[in-house]
Amino acid sequence: TCQKVSHKLLLVNPDPGYIWNVRRELIPFTELHTELQLTAASLQRNPKAYGAWFHRKWCIRHFCRSNADSNITQEVLDKELQLCTNFLNIDERNFHCWNFRRFIVGALASNLLNIDILDGSWEVFIKGLFKGSNENPPTLLLMGPQLTYPSGKVATVPDETIENGSNETRQLLIAVLRNEWTFTTQKIEQNFSNNSAFHYRSKLLPLIWVVGRNNHDDDNIQDILTSEFQLVRNAFYTEPDDQTSWWYHRFLLDFCKPSATTADSELSYAFYRDALQTEREAIQDLVETEDGQCKWGWITLHAIVSRMRELILIVNENCIAIDFQYSNLPLLRQEAEECLKKLIEIDPDRMCRYQDMLLDLTGQ
Fold first, then answer.
1. DSSP per-residue codes, 65-100
2. pLDDT category, 28, cuts 50, 70, 90?
3. Which of 55, 63, 150, 204 is the most buried (most CB within 10 A)?
């Protein structure tokens, strides 16, 4: 029948979305494990089949919403998380699997808090993490929805519904968060070119910091960021021509910049200054080691010097008492110009871009 034919077709080629659509019409008459086995077999044939990953998310949501036993749901979701680990051990840069992993983490939070929102967003997870704390959750959208509801509307979580969660539940959510943080560390250390792991880590970092501060952990944000800078330095010292670690390094520089609205923040101007100076010296050493041919090193040096000039201007304008090892603005501008001139030399394909940046700089 239609079920058997579609099953055989998808085992041969799991890409056609219309065949998965047919199976979703038949899902009330099938069992969950049958569909999970089918998608697992399909993904073994093509681990990046969009339709198979989407169908698996759909099945998980269908099961979680129809199953009343949260313990059974927890077991199923734990198995899905282990499946992600197995797939990522085979191909650690499979972004479909990373995306599915984030979906499962969102489903775990919904199950722990007994909230019927299973669209892959982390709104429930984040609000559960910050329940009863003095900290406000990050305002940026860390993980958006991956599925929509039949109405086409995105579900929202009223704050009062989170109050149902206990402190024990919150600790379980924190354990999930830290497990994801540890998992990204392992994957990055296995392969510094893992852009998916670095991207996921950039989303976890704000949560790790705020949750840790609220729990009075030994590690504050400065310690965490210092460790992150060390991790990313190890990455680009190992593979200086791989842009993955350089992009995460740029994220860290932006993240540790103190906010004007949080004067008492642990992210102080002094720490930002020290980070810029430390990274400047480390990357200068790398550029020298690579005989001046490290394009990403020069790009990052230019970015750091530009940030140092900006920081000096802000400190001077606001009369903030901070000393600088490098505070000569004309010399810093000259260093930025030298970075761009070197980039024009070693990266002629993007010469026009560097020339425009150089014109902007000399016009200041």
1. HH---HHHHHHHHHHHHHHHHHHHHH-TT-HHHHHH
2. low
3. 55
**Amino acid, res. 46:** N
Q: By the 8 A CB rule, do 105 and 180 touch?
A: yes
The residues near 256 (Cβ < 8 Å, ≥ 6 apart) are: 225, 267, 271, 272, 275
The pLDDT-based confidence of 264 (bands split at 50, 70, 90) is very low
Q: Supply the DSSP symbol for 261.
A: T
pLDDT at 124: 82
pLDDT at 143: 77
pLDDT in tens, 83-93: 999 999 999 98
User: Hey, is 105 helix, strand or coil?
Assistant: helix
Distance CA 95, CA 90 (A): 13
Q: Buried (b) or exposed (e) across 86-111, using 16+ Cβ within 10 A? A: ebbeeebebebbbbbbbbbbbbbbbb
Question: CB atoms < 10 A from the CB of 233, how many?
Answer: 17
Are 80 and 148 in contact, with CB atoms under 8 Å apart?
no
Decide if 224 contacts 209 (C-beta within 8 A): yes
Please measure the distance between the N-terminal and C-terminal CA atoms of the chain and give it in whole angstroms.
73
Length of the chain: 364
Contact 265, 256 (CB under 8 A): no
106: left (phi over 0), alpha (psi -120 to 50) or beta: alpha
Measuring CA to CA, which residue among 184, 193, 188 is closest to residue 242? 193
Q: What is the DSSP code string of 295-346?
A: HHHHHHHHHHHHHHHHHHHHHHHTT-----SS--HHHHHHHHHHHHHHHHHH
CA distance 335 to 306: 9
Q: How far apart are CA 89 and CA 94, in angstroms?
A: 10
Q: 162 pLDDT band (50/70/90 cuts)? A: low
What is the rounded distance in angstroms from the CA atom of residue 201 to the CA atom of residue 224?
Answer: 12
Rg (CA), the chain: 24
Contact 47, 87 (CB under 8 A): yes
